[in-house]
Specification:
This protein is an alpha+beta fold and 83 residues long. 48% of the residues lie in helices and 18% in strands. It has helices at 26-36, 44-57, 63-77, and strands at residues 5-13, 20-25.
């Protein structure tokens, strides 16, 4: 099992209306932040999440902190999906 795997998935809305993506680890979250995050919505929480995800990937922050930061950034711009 990957040391970067999250304790629970996080599902976010994508740029495509009605489409969602479930993220389970720091690597995929970082890819989403860099390549798929809504271009018009970067903010301080986005930047903080990016920093914490990098640190978690390199072992300098916890995976739980990375997940929490990613979720906070997603909530801030309204893309966190709850079923």
């Amino acid at each position: 099992m990957s040391k970067h795997l999250w304790n629970g998935p996080v599902t976010v809305a994508t740029r495509d209306p009605g489409k969602y993506l479930t993220i389970n680890d720091t690597k995929r979250a970082m890819q989403f932040l860099l390549q798929e995050w809504p271009k018009d919505k970067p903010d301080k929480l986005h930047a903080l999440a990016k920093k914490i995800l990098i640190n978690a990937h390199e072992g300098r922050a916890s995976v739980d902190d990375a997940r929490d930061a990613f979720m906070a950034a997603a909530v801030a711009i309204g893309i966190l999906w709850r079923d």
